[in-house]
Every structure is written in structure tokens, then in C-alpha cells.
Amino acid sequence: MPKRSDIKSILVIGSGPIVIGQACEFDYSGTQACRVLRAEGFRVILVNSNPATIMTDPDVADATYIEPLDVAHAEAIIALEKPDAVLPTLGGQTALNLGLALADQGILDKYNVEMIGANPDAIRMAEDRELFKNAMTEIGLQTCVSRITNTIDEALSIAKEIGYPIMLRPSFIMGGAGTGIAYDEKQMREMARIGIEASPIGEILVEQSVLGWKEYETEVMRDRNDNCVIVCSIENFDAMGVHTGDSITVAPQQTLTDLEYQQMRDASFAVLRKIGVDTGGSNVQFAVNPADGTQIVIEMNPRVSRSSALASKATGFPIAKIAARLAVGYTLDEILNDVTKATPACFEPSIDYVVTKVPRFAFEKLPGASNTLGTQMQSVGEVMAIGRTFRESLQKALRSMEYGRFGLNCDDGETFFDDLNDEDRIDLLVKPNPERIFALESSLRAFMTAQRAHELTHIDPYFIDQLLQIIETRELLCSRTPDTISKSEMKRVLRDGFSAEQIAYAWSCSMDEIYETIKNYKIEKTFSAVDTCAGEFSSSTPYFYSTYSDEDEIILPEKKTVVILGSGPNRIGQGVEFDYCCVHASYALRDSGFAPVMINCNPETVSTDYDTSDMLFFEPLTASDVIAICEKLNPFGIIVALGGQTPLKLSSVLKEKGFNILGTSPESIDKAEDRELFHELCEKLEIKQPEGGIAITTAQALNVAEKIGYPVLVRPSYVLGGRAMQIVDEPNQLVEAMEELTAMGTLGKEGGLSSTRPALIDRFLQDATEVDVDALRDINGEFLLGSIMEHIEEAGVHSGDSACILPPQTLSSDVIATIIKHTKALAENLEVVGLINIQFAVQDDNVYIIEANPRASRTVPFVAKATGIPIAKIATRLMLGETFESLRSAGIISVELSSENIMPTDRISVKAPVFPFARFPKVDAVLGPEMRSTGEVMGISPTFGTAFYKAQISAGMVIPSKGVVFISVADRDKENAIEVARMYAALGFRFAATSGTASAFVQKGIPVDYVIAKVGDEYGNDAVDLIANGKIDLVINTPMGRSTRRDGQHIRIAATKYHVPCVTTIAAARALASGIAQWEKSNIQVASLQKMHENVQLTLESNNV
């Protein structure tokens, strides 16, 4: 059937901020959907709260709203835009739940809006655990023995009836939030509480555990005519009990017999038919008993899921594009495969390679969190690799992780596991954890049988055999030398995924010697195409992976190529913001007449969509892998400055190999990172710096700290996200901080300290305001300010974890002038070509520089959305050698655009961080110099208070309008706390406070309802009890020093546990009070970015939508 003609406009709901369980894969799917719907002639309205996305670019939708994803704001947009339909199936669980709430509250009926992509009844049947279980029973599919409940007592009764261990699954959740396995009544009571709180409808499924069974997923599509296709089958390396998002996964499935697979395929189709999904994609999860092959349906998602992005990248089949077309009336047989241009979408993809996904974790950022993996997802990102065999793809995936490993073994990292005693190694095998695969390899190589390994891990014997084959190849490699290895043996080593770095380690020789040995044997790395059809049809896709086969499928483009190095796996400190910059670079290169080439290994991103660039290489971002591609392409240049720290680390070695690094030179990048050189530059330019020094050893660090005085800020070189950064108050803390940076700490595993990578020790500036600046400079020296952002939290909280305001609200004109002067001088002296980000601290109107980074920063997307200026695109044009003058002459930017008028004056934009603390309830929520947020949101309003309030509710904070505020602050904050308390008192709030704070309040005439006892005090109210019993509505707690930090830790953890909003700085408390005051006086107002930016004098457009 043709597309529907009764629909003219569609509201697409995005997924909101990057959180664990719902990351940038929904930016990928949402962007695809918006583009295809516009191409089909529909007017597309988009709502999303996340500025760090491609989908919120103003040229992706016709009307783009960066607003909170709640019913009130969605209704305001619907009332203004009057869409004919809403599409909630491409924005993850957030969009699905919002779409269902709009239906349940009558909003869709009120405005005559139809839900497309999935109907409300289908969503309820799939997401409600009891309805889903009953539906599966009706069609004869087996599920676990289970019952639904809404109470803890009934959950305990059901568990006793079924028998432990017990699996708990809340309804309407994502990423396994609130799920878990209980082994006894005590665990069951706590987990039932958590699960009921996690479910939006307060419902949990208490079911028989299938711990140790094999786990599978199928990505399925179905249309109105009942055409069904399996896009991809995925098998988990880890057994049931580890969330699929935290497990290594493999596509296609490897261990089912053909009969078992056909049974699973038929069951998948039956599930979709019963649930009623007939206009899009779904994900169905199964458990299989390894003893007898029994298959059980675990759950299904009636929407494009997290795994859909992996399936799309694994097969080349554009699930989101096709789902969007199905939603507007097309059928699978009417949609042409983008890749083959010859087959319809009802042809199931077929692949002749193996894809491996490995999750990326950030436990080093979350002290106190257990690294044991379970049914709640904890990973913050993932990588994907493609190879002809599982062995090859696994090794490529492991070296993509940027953990300092170059594969499964045969590198410096293996010694850590080899040095463990047998008991410690076995402990790593029994408890699933991010390093288990390395411990398993070490155990198999040292002493363990395959059968014993299977008994301890429940990992299928097939996968254990694959690891043994890699171990055998390693033994072969180590028994040879460059002179004695044969050509066939070398081919075996390479085809099993061993990198040049691993071979160099085995032979204790240089990388150049390895390259020469491989070259002498005339062995070349080849590149095969991902074509969805295993070569059965001709394909024009420019999507490649490396291997060592007999045929190279690359066809070089006629245009000059420019390689863009992506940012690798998402992690705390380096996330989707850098992917955004890389995608904009690709668009700008096309507009400039170049053929953009993307190298990346992250399946969640828009950059790894096969049509974002003219060529895509899904490859690890290591020196040997990138060099191999560049030698094949001989590009005009390479862009390293937009993908974060990952590509920057490769800039010097790529330049040494003779490749042209576009934009700021590697020497200038190193000059900004080299402490002594940068200090000399700042002294020359008369730019103030905090006193400091560098240290490689603990003794050196102690000497520097003694000289400049405590507190000091300790940070390593060449990292992002404040990795291992600490504020240190006394010598013993400094000793601990230095241990973290050496071989004893987690950073030590990633390289530790050296003369080229020293620790930086600076005097910490207390009570300073931090400022972020983004700016541009061309090859002729012309300078353009991009933005000045004022941080709400004081210096000492990582910039990525602080809310920030654009334009600044409290900086004087003299301070702003000084900041611009210093930024321009540094850009000039570092010979920046493209972007530079500089962080300043302002203390008593004195401007100090903290650091300068001649590259893109994580603030670039926020700045672009706030100002309407796509600075990443402009930076790319400048890196190609164009100038501001030439861009003006070509009409690409306006002659009026200048440093003086780039920031808006009619609105305020606030960027707020989003934290993962709800996933890690034992982690202290206090903020510091090491970044811990996973994502960001944006609030836009004419006033600061309402912009801040919008940002906070977008971040998930439930802000009270009345009730009791518990205030406990450090001594240095007491005077400011009195001012803050008066603000909340004026709003009608009452107070609880610790004795010292309460005394200060009472002296100033502020009544306190509850006096809270400190830890160890005999008298007074217990803070945790008050929080647990719902007596506290907001917590304000500012730790200072170690003892105060410990006193407050149990309070902050309790606030996280019981979902009470908690702020840990006076500045944030003040901003929140301002937000509550202004929000109470205002009506909900929404405006599209297109409307906001209609007067922006810029014509830099992309031709890629």
C-alpha cells in the first residue's frame, strides 16, 4: 500500500539525555527517521531535551524543540504545531512512555493526534509484564514461572512459592533498571522495593530464575500485510544473569542448530503478531537451556531498541529508516534496500562475517560501585568490530576499547592477570565483571581445562574453544621470530586478529620491524564491504571492514578524500558531543567538494551510519589500524581535532608517517599539553596561572605541594573528563592520589606517569567561578569568539558536571574583555586553525587560566544550539584552509557575524548534566574535579530561573514546590547558606539542619523544624530515617574536607536511594531556588530553534538531509 495521504505532519519524540540503558543509538535512529519522513514530504516536528545530538540540529526537522520530555511540554508543542500524528517508537523507552502518557491522559484525543509506529494497546501488552506473559501463554510460547505484584509482602510470598533464586523485572523500564536476582528473603525484600519504585506503574514480575541459560535476541520487522523479516540474530557471550547491554554479544548467533534457529525465528514472528506490532521494528529476547534446548521468551520491546543500532550496523540494514516508512503506510515489499538498490526490504539480510560487540564501563569514575555485572545495565558505551571469524572480530573489538589492551592477550596488560594467584583468577571468573574475558584467557593459558572454565562461567564451550584457538596462535607467534616465521604462519596470526602492536610485543621489536616483515611477505590488509546480502547482489555501499582475504573490495572515490577520526566508544568524559562534531565535519567536507571518510568503532552513533560519509571504515582507532586505511587511501588530510582525546593521541605518529594533519599542528597541541612550555607561553602573554608544578613521582608531588600550599588540584596529562583528577587537602591524600596515577591505580593500567605524561599539581582556587570559552581562528589569524559560558558550580567541580549558562550572567564587562583578550592571544600564539577551548577561573575579578585545548570540546553542540552558529562546520572549513574572508565572500557566513554579536541577548540557555547515581546507589553523589555525568540536557528561556528549572526537570530531577529542605553545609558555606535559606523560606519551605547549621539559622531568625544529629551524636533526628520516611523533600549538602565528606556521604546516598533531589553546592541551591520562584510565576512556553534563530546571520547549510 502507498504512503498515507491523510497525514501531513508528524511529531517525533526523542529519547532525552544519554543515560545508562539509553544512549546515542536513539540519536542515530531518530535522525534517520526525521530525514526519511521529510524526504517523503511530511512536515516533521521534533521534541528532545538533549542538545548534543544530530537530531536536534535545526536542519534535521522542520520544527525542533529542545524542551523537557514530559506531558505538559509535549501538550504545549502539540497545541502550537497541531501535528496529525505522533511517532514514539524511535526514542527508546522515554519516548514510548511519554507517548503512552499522552494517550492515557487524553491529550492525543483532545487534539485529534494519531499514534503511529505502534498502537497504545500493543505497547501496554508488550511492556506490562502480566499482559505479556498471558499473551505468550495464549500462543503456546513458554515463559518463566512467574506472577505479578505491586507489593513487597506479596513479592515475598510469591518468591517462597516459586523458590530461590528469583528474578525480578519491573514493568515499563529500560536498561534493566530495577531488575535483579534475589537469593534469599533479605535480598528479595530490598530488591522488591527497588523494583516497585523503578516501575512507572509500580509493578514487578517475580519469576523463576534461568541463571546460566544461554541468551539470544532477534531484531524483527513486520508490516501491515504480515510480511516479517529477521534483520539479525544476536547471541550473548555471557550467560543469563548479565544484562545483554553489559555482555559481549555476537552476530549472527553462533551456537544454535538450524532447527533451533528456525524455531526461534518462528517464535519471534508469533510474538509480533500477537502483540500487534505491524508498522515497525521490535526486539525479542530468549533464554535457551543448554542442557535440552528448551526456549523461553523473556521479553520484547515494541519499538526500535538499543540493539537495533547494533543490528543495523552489523548488517547494513537501516532499521530506523524502514521503521519510519512502515509507520506512514508503506510495506516491506515496497521499500527498496538502500545498499543493494535492487532488493526490497522484505529480503532478510545475510552476512558472511562475524560481528562482536564489547561494552565499555566507567567504574573507575564511580568509587564505591561494585564492578560485578548483573541484570541491571551498567555500561556507558560499547564498541563493535567486524571480522571473517569470531576470533578476528573479538580481538579487534578488545583493542577498540581504549583500556590499553591491543587484543585478548600478547600485550602489556596480560601480565596483571598472569601475576594473579589461582584463587583470585577464579574469583574473577565466577563473578561476571568487565575483565572476566582477560582472566579467562589467562586461566586457560596457565592451568584451566575448557570444561572447568565452562562450569565456572557458564560460557558456551564453543566460545571457550575460540579463545583456546587464539591462545594456540599466540604460542605459535611466540615460538617464532621475524626471521623464522613462514608466510602462511604470519597469515594465520593476522587472520586471528593479532595487531602489529601484539606482534611487536611478542617479538620485543619495533612496530616498523613488524610492518617490514609483513611487507616482505607481500601480505596486505584487505577491506571487504558490508552489503546486507553476503555478496549475492551487487552493492554500492561504501561501508568497509578490514581483514586478510584474497580480494580487496575498495573502490576509491574520484574526489580527494579527507579522513575523520571518530571518538571511539562512549564513556564518561568523551561522549556523543564529539561524535556530533565529527558528523558536522563530514557534512562540511561534502559541501566543500571533498569525499569524507569516517573511521570509528562505535555502533551507537550517527557517524557510523553508512550514508553519513562517502566512505565508512568500522575499525579500531589504534595506530596500526588507522595507518593501514590511510596508506590505502592516501588522503588529502586527516582531521584529529574533533573526536576528543582518542584521535589526538594519534596525531604525532600519523604525522611521522607523512600524513597531512589538518588544522592545528600536533606540535601546537603538544605545546598546550606540555606544562612547562605552556607556562612559559602564559608568562610571555601575561596571563595569570595558579601556582603549580609537574611531578612523575610521589616525592616530587609532595615537594610541589609544600612549595605552593594546600589545597592542590592533581591531574594527569592527556586525558578527558577530569580522569583521576582530585582536590587534595593534605599530604596523605596526595600520596593516595599519586598512587592512582601510577601502576598501582586504575590509570596506571592505562599507561601511568612518564616524562611525557607527568602529573600536574596546581594550587586550587577556592570560591572561584569557572568559565568555558569556545573560539575559532583561521589560517590568516582572524579570530571569532564562539561563546563564553559561565559555570553555576564553583571551580573544583568538573566543567562537564557543572551546569553552565550562555550568555554569562554575573561576569563584569572588564572580566569578559580580559577573557576575550587572553583567548585571542593564546589562539594566535598556538597558531590555532579551527577550534580552541579554554577554561578560566575568575576569583575576585582576577582571571586565571586553567587549561587550553586546541580542539573541539564537549560544549560545541550546546553552543551551536544556543547561538544558531554551527561552529564545528565552520571549524572544518577553516581546517581545510578556507578563511573567514573567503566564507563571507562566498555568502556562507554573514559579514555581520563577529565576536561582539555572536551570543544571543534575548534568551538564556542552561546546560545541565545528567548523572548515573540512581544505577549505583552506593556511590556518593558529591561532585568534584573528576567528571561523572553521562549526558546533558538544555533549558532555554528568556529568564535564567526558568531556563535552569527546565534543564533540571529535563535531567530527571523531581523539584518540590513546597515541603522541607534539609540543609547541611561546611563551615565556609554557612554565611551563604543563610542567604539560600531565606530564598527557600520566601517560597514557603520549612527546614531541617544539622546542629551547627541550625544554630546559625536560628541566630538569623530562620526557624528549623528538625535538628539533625551528626554521625555518632547521641541526640537528634536521624537524617536517613527522615529521608526514608518521606519527611525531606530536598537535600542541600556541601562537603568540605574528608571528615565532613564522610558525615554527609550517608545522607547523599540515602537521598539517591529514596529519590530525593540532592544538590551539593551552594551555587546550585541558589540557582534552584531562583528557578522555583520564577517557574511558579510563569506559564509553560515553548519555541522552536528555527523560530529562535530566524534572525541569525548565517547561511552555512548542509546538503545531507
Whole-angstrom Rg:
28 Å
Would you count the extended β strands for me?
38
Q: What are the low-pLDDT stretches, counting only 5+ consecutive residues below 50?
A: 1097-1105
Strand fraction equals: 15-25%
* Average pLDDT taken over every residue: 90
Characterize the largest beta sheet: strand count, sense, and whether it forms a barrel: 7 strands, antiparallel
The termini sit apart by 25 Å
Number of helices: 39
Tell me the structural class: alpha/beta
Silhouette: globular
Could you walk me through the main structural features you see in this protein, from its secondary elements to its overall organization?
This protein has 1105 residues and is an alpha/beta fold. It contains 39 helices and 38 strands. A hairpin with a 2-residue loop joins strand 30 and strand 31 (846-853).
Quick overview:
The chain has 1105 residues and is an alpha/beta fold. Helix content is 37%, strand content 19%.
Summarize the SSE layout with pairings.
Layout: E1 9-13, H1 25-39, E2 43-48, E3 63-66, H2 71-81, E4 85-87, H3 92-104, H4 107-110, E5 114-115, H5 120-127, H6 129-138, E6 146-149, H7 152-162, E7 166-170, E8 180-182, H8 185-198, E9 204-208, E10 214-222, E11 228-236, E12 249-251, H9 258-275, E13 280-288, E14 295-301, H10 306-315, H11 319-327, E15 354-360, E16 381-387, H12 390-400, H13 414-418, H14 422-430, H15 436-446, H16 450-457, H17 461-478, H18 487-495, H19 500-507, H20 511-520, E17 526-529, E18 543-547, E19 561-565, H21 576-591, E20 595-600, E21 615-618, H22 623-633, E22 637-639, H23 645-648, H24 651-656, H25 666-673, H26 675-684, E23 692-695, H27 698-708, E24 712-716, E25 726-728, H28 731-741, E26 759-763, E27 769-777, E28 783-794, E29 804-806, H29 813-829, E30 834-843, E31 846-853, H30 860-867, H31 871-879, H32 884-889, E32 908-914, E33 935-941, H33 944-954, E34 964-969, H34 974-986, E35 990-994, H35 995-1003, E36 1010-1012, H36 1023-1028, E37 1034-1038, H37 1041-1057, E38 1062-1063, H38 1066-1081, H39 1089-1092
Parallel strand pairs: 1-2, 1-4, 2-3, 4-5, 18-21, 19-20, 19-22, 20-21, 34-35, 34-37, 35-36, 37-38
Antiparallel strand pairs: 6-9, 7-8, 7-9, 10-11, 10-13, 11-12, 12-15, 13-14, 15-16, 17-18, 23-26, 24-25, 24-26, 27-28, 27-30, 28-29, 29-32, 30-31, 32-33
Helix pairs in contact: 1-10, 1-11, 5-6, 7-8, 14-15, 16-17, 17-18, 19-20, 21-31, 27-28, 33-38, 34-38
